[in-house]
Design a protein that fits this description.
The structure holds 2 protein chains of 2 kinds. By secondary structure, chain A is of the alpha/beta class. In chain A, 34% of the residues lie in helices and 26% in strands. In chain A, 41% of the residues are buried. The longest helix of chain B is centred in the middle third of the chain and has 40 residues. The radius of gyration of chain B is 31 Å and the shape is elongated. Chain B has 2 domains: 189 residues, no CATH class; 95 residues, Alpha-Beta Plaits, CATH 3.30.70. Helices cover 72% and strands 8% of the residues of chain B.
Chain lengths: 235, 299
């Protein structure tokens, strides 16, 4: 069954630029999908519409049956509680500890302290940062910070994890570590959508790959059929 | 239970956030402090001016002298006539014997002259001391009394009273305008200061939105933080107010320059003003935070 269904979605910004043209796409439950393409191809706009930072100009986006485009501003939080988002620049609160950063996502849900404690430690263990719970983000390496951000995004058990270039600021070795964490999360049943520039990673992971160009789907590679050269060929 | 948890967590977080963003909090707190001190001073001044004018107005009396040869019956008639005028607050009768007694007590010279006067011989006049409700209409009222039969003269400090009243009126209105203007200016000044401090925390708000905090969830900690800022900002003005007003009151013995200008007694006045300052501080702090956060909650 599809978790995400995108039907004829078009996004035109106020400036008149159309970032996404009549796009249709389905992503199944438990999938791991890469979205790649050159700068300005519309991949960021596409995922921004998924977590409702942007509204589609026309068309329909359904996530788990919820019509995201029709969601009102003051109801966006309901969607955000069901999905996790990870960014290139981590977006951590530097004045609070690793533990507090992760716990924050549960506190807004109003869970009891003991439950928060258990869940946060479990997820920090998953990303391998249990022993750094009391450190501040600035005391951690880039890879560790990204793992904190991932921990925060999955702590409330979302069905969908959206990653916007999570390895963009990291070196190759650290990037692969992050990818392993994401794969681990995916194996646990969470659907992962990752936007990236790094075709090496994409080729290595052997997942479904969606190649965008000028706001349109250029190619939709089945699991394991993507090879690194294709992006160069298309340029 | 869940709501209680969220509220207590919000209070804890707001308190932490005041401390964590201490330099920014300090900016807001000092802004509140300074403006509240100015508000306190103008409140004290206007309240004292008001108090003084009221005291003066209460003292103003229309002295109604009756004809020398009025009988008891005439007096009753005149009293009835005066009572018919609407602007009358109260009427006191002072007989010529009472006046002469008062005068004799005040000086030896009067005593020698007046001691053997009988009621019939006395050249003094019976008087009605009339106080009015609305001092602005005192001239009109005095005129009406003067026209009553067997009233010889009416005195109330003509000219001077009218001038005094119009000056008091201007001062009173000016004070009200100044205090209101100050409070409004304070509100916006503090709102803007808090807005600037929150501007540097829009990342925090962005992350809150990202992890699924509802708009109310985001606003409440900031509003509680505004409340803390308001309370902290009003501490110094309140202490300064209580200490300095009591000191000034004692130093001047409760009167300024002459017994004529009496200061408002410190208790409960200063506690009332303190409460007003606290309420203004808290409301303005909360209002400022609310306005500032609202701006960052739109997409």
């Amino acid at each position: 069954m599809d978790l995400i269904r995108i039907c004829n979605v078009k996004k035109t910004y106020k400036t008149g630029v159309t970032a996404v043209h009549e796009m249709s796409l389905e992503i199944g439950k438990g999938d791991f999908v890469f979205i790649i393409g050159s700068t300005g191809c519309g991949k960021s706009t596409l995922i921004k519409m998924l977590y409702r930072e942007e509204k589609p100009t026309s068309g329909k986006i359904l996530i788990g049956g919820l019509d995201v485009g029709k969601l009102r501003n003051n109801k966006v939080y309901k969607l955000r509680r069901k999905i996790g988002v990870v960014f290139q620049d981590f977006k951590l609160l530097n004045k609070t500890t690793v533990y507090e950063n992760v716990a924050f996502a549960l506190e807004v849900l109003g869970l009891p302290k003991s439950e928060i404690h258990a869940k946060v430690l479990k997820v920090l263990d998953l990303v391998g940062l249990k022993n750094k719970a009391n450190n501040y983000p600035t005391q951690l390496s880039g890879g560790e910070q990204q793992r904190v951000a991932i921990a925060r995004s999955i702590v409330n058990g979302p069905k969908l994890l959206i990653c916007d270039e999570p390895t963009g600021n990291l070196d190759k070795v650290t990037s692969m570590e992050i990818m392993n964490v994401l794969e681990e999360i995916n194996k646990m049943g969470t659907t992962v959508i990752m936007v990236t520039h790094d075709t090496d990673i994409v080729a290595r992971m052997k997942k479904r790959v969606i190649l965008l160009d000028s706001g349109r789907i250029l190619k939709d590679y089945e699991k394991g059929t993507y090879v690194n050269e294709s992006i160069k060929d298309n340029k | 239970m869940k709501a209680l948890r969220i509220i207590s967590r919000n209070i804890r977080d707001s308190f932490k956030s005041v401390l964590r963003n201490f330099s920014l909090s300090l900016a807001s707190i000092s802004c509140i402090t300074i403006t509240l001190i100015v508000v306190a001073i103008s409140l004290i001044l206007s309240y004292n001016v008001n108090n003084f004018t009221e005291l003066v107005e209460k003292d103003v009396t229309i002295v109604t002298f009756l004809d020398v040869n009025v009988t008891e019956q005439d007096r009753q008639l005149i009293l009835k006539e005066i009572k018919k005028i609407d602007n009358i607050e109260n009427i006191e009768f002072e007989s010529k014997m009472a006046i002469s007694k008062e005068m004799m007590e005040s000086s030896e010279v009067f005593k020698n002259i007046m001691s053997d006067w009988t009621e019939g011989e006395s050249p003094l006049q019976d008087t009605f001391l009339v106080k009015v409700k609305d001092i602005k209409k005192i001239g009109e009222t005095a005129n009406k009394i003067g026209k009553i039969e067997k009233v010889s003269v009416v005195k109330y400090g003509e000219g001077m009273i009218e001038q005094l009243v119009s000056i008091f009126d201007i001062v009173k209105n000016a004070c009200v305008v100044i205090v209101i203007a100050l409070i409004v200016v304070t509100a916006f000044l503090i709102a803007n200061t808090i807005k600037i401090t929150i501007y540097s925390r829009r990342k925090e708000i962005e992350i809150m939105r990202l992890v699924g905090a509802s708009n109310i969830n985001i606003k409440i900690p900031f509003i509680i933080e505004g409340l803390f800022l308001g309370i902290l900002g009003s501490i110094i003005p309140i202490i300064a107010l209580i200490y300095s007003y009591s000191t000034i009151y004692e130093h001047f013995d409760g009167q300024l320059f002459s017994p004529f200008i009496r200061l408002v007694s410190p208790t409960p006045f200063i506690y009332f003003v303190s409460l007003v300052l606290l309420v203004i501080g808290v409301l303005v702090g909360m209002f400022g935070s609310w306005r500032a956060v609202k701006k960052y909650l739109k997409i």
